[in-house]
Amino acid sequence: MSKFYSKIILLASIPIVSLAQSNNPYPKSAREIKEDSMGSILRTQGLGELISSDQKSRKTSKQAAHYKALWQAAIEYLSARDILFSDYEGGTIVTDWYMDRDCQTKIIVLIKGKTISPDSLRVKAWRKSAVTDKIQNLTKIDYELEKKAIEIIVEMAKKSL
User: What is the pTM of this model?
Assistant: First the structure.
């Protein structure tokens, strides 16, 4: 009988010994879970998270200021034209067709980024000749006007900050 009991005790203790020897951190105690979520005073993780969140808030406020400056510069640039549609959250401004010299022109400004740079803007400009055929009304993309508009808007945004 003693061999029988010793085998049962041996078989029952194997899982306990293997759990104690494993490097598996789970299940965590309530204290460890609380430290992971809040950060421990003894560990730098908690303070590091506080510092990084402060830097994130500064970064987002700077990005918001840059976005606002781009938006205001684009509105100011297009203010001489009739603005058909504008959406601040979407970063879109669309003008109606307007007469520019001997052509009709339409401009769309898209604010893509949150930094003041030419990469943050996309401008599309179309020109339509004032002389219209009954058969065909030619509309062309004006790349020079697009580049010029981007340069002017970026310069205006930089000056406003």
Answer: 0.63
